[in-house]
C-alpha cells in the first residue's frame, strides 16, 4: 500500500480539513488594517494577542496569534482610542453642541460626529477607523419593507417601531444640522441626509461598548454610556462565551478578559449578553447559530385564539395575568414550552369551579388532572400552528429568493431566523409529546 492511502491517513486528512475549515484567513496584510494598526499605535495601543481574519460562518473577526489562558487580558484599549462624547466636545463641533438648546442627546452628538468625519474623508483624523466600519447594516430598520413583512409578528412590530424611532430622530435633528452650515461649503442637507444619519445610528447602536460618563449640562438627561472602540469592535458575538469587559478607571483603558482558554489561530469571541435571535437581529442585524437563548414568542392574541370563546371569565383571567406580569415573554425554547407559558395556559384553562385557585397556579401547584391535560393540549396546538407558519414562511422566502435577486442577502438573513425557529418548535413538539405520554 502506498504511503498516505490507508484508513488512518484518511481520518487524519478529514480532521485536518475540518480544522482548516474552522480556521480564519489572516487579513492583517490588507491596507485598511495596516493603516488602522498604525493609527492605534500612534494612540499608544498595539495588540500582541489578536489579528484581523475572515472566518467561515461569522465573516470578519479577530484571531488569536497565540494560546490564550483563562482570565488573560486580551485587549486593553487606551481611552485615547475611544470615540465618546468627550471626543465630540473637543472637536470643531464642540462649540455648536454646547450652545444648542434644548441640549442634544449624547446619541445625536456621536452620530453627528460620525457623519461629519465620514464626509471629511481623507481630512478626517478618524479615517483609519471609519474605513473598516461596515458600509451598510442589516438591522430591520435597514431592510426593505417586503423583507420586514416576512419577520415573525413580535419582531415585525418592533422593527416598525424602530423605523419610526429613527425617522423621528432624523426629523427632530434637522434644525441642529442646519446650525452647522458655517462648518461646510456644501449644503448640510446633502451631508446630513437620512441615509447618512441611519448609517451613523446603526454604527453606534450595533458597535458601541458601555462606558459610563457623568451628566453634563451640554447634553440632555439621557444616559451618556456609549463609546466606539476601534479594533475591539471587530470581535464577533458568541452566546456561549464568557468574558469580562469594562473600562478600567486605574489604567484608563477599556479591557477585555477571557472567561476561558483559547487555542492559537482560533476566533476570539465576545458575548453581547443572553439575547435570543429576534433581539440579536433587531439590535445588531445578525442571527447566531446554535443560540441556546433562541426562542419563539407567543402573543396574547395567539393564546386567546386556542381558548374557548364561551369562557365568561376570560377577561378576568387575562387581567390577573397582566397584573402579575405573566402575559409577556411566553416562549417555546429548545427544551420545550417555558414554565411561564405552561403556567399561563393552566390559569387560562381553569374551569369555573376552579377559578378561585388561580393563586395556586401562579405558585406552580397542580390543580387537577383535567387542567394539566387541557393546558398541554393547547400548548401542542399552538406549537403546531407555529410550525405550519414557519414552514409556510420558509417556502415563501425560497420563492422570493428566486424572484427577487437584489434582496437575496436580506432574505437569507430572515430565512436563517425562521429556520432556527422551526428547529426550536420541532424540539418543543417532541417535548410536549413526551409530557402527554407521561401524563396519560
Automatic annotation (TrEMBL):
<dbReference type="InterPro" id="IPR046341">
    <property type="entry name" value="SET_dom_sf"/>
</dbReference>
<dbReference type="GO" id="GO:0005634">
    <property type="term" value="C:nucleus"/>
</dbReference>
<keyword id="KW-0489">Methyltransferase</keyword>
<comment type="similarity">
    <text>Belongs to the class V-like SAM-binding methyltransferase superfamily. SETD4 family.</text>
</comment>
<dbReference type="GO" id="GO:0006954">
    <property type="term" value="P:inflammatory response"/>
</dbReference>
<dbReference type="InterPro" id="IPR036464">
    <property type="entry name" value="Rubisco_LSMT_subst-bd_sf"/>
</dbReference>
<keyword id="KW-0963">Cytoplasm</keyword>
<protein>
    <recommendedName>
        <fullName>SET domain-containing protein 4</fullName>
        <ecNumber>2.1.1.364</ecNumber>
    </recommendedName>
</protein>
<dbReference type="GO" id="GO:0032259">
    <property type="term" value="P:methylation"/>
</dbReference>
<dbReference type="Pfam" id="PF00856">
    <property type="entry name" value="SET"/>
</dbReference>
<keyword id="KW-0949">S-adenosyl-L-methionine</keyword>
<dbReference type="InterPro" id="IPR016852">
    <property type="entry name" value="SET_MeTrfase"/>
</dbReference>
<feature type="domain" description="SET">
    <location>
        <begin position="48"/>
        <end position="273"/>
    </location>
</feature>
<keyword id="KW-0395">Inflammatory response</keyword>
<dbReference type="GO" id="GO:0005829">
    <property type="term" value="C:cytosol"/>
</dbReference>
<dbReference type="Pfam" id="PF09273">
    <property type="entry name" value="Rubis-subs-bind"/>
</dbReference>
<keyword id="KW-0539">Nucleus</keyword>
<keyword id="KW-0808">Transferase</keyword>
<dbReference type="InterPro" id="IPR050600">
    <property type="entry name" value="SETD3_SETD6_MTase"/>
</dbReference>
<dbReference type="InterPro" id="IPR044429">
    <property type="entry name" value="SETD4_SET"/>
</dbReference>
<dbReference type="InterPro" id="IPR001214">
    <property type="entry name" value="SET_dom"/>
</dbReference>
<comment type="subunit">
    <text>Forms a ternary complex with TBK1 and ZNF268; the interaction with TBK1 is ZNF268-dependent and leads to TBK1 monomethylation.</text>
</comment>
<dbReference type="GO" id="GO:0140945">
    <property type="term" value="F:histone H3K4 monomethyltransferase activity"/>
</dbReference>
<dbReference type="InterPro" id="IPR015353">
    <property type="entry name" value="Rubisco_LSMT_subst-bd"/>
</dbReference>
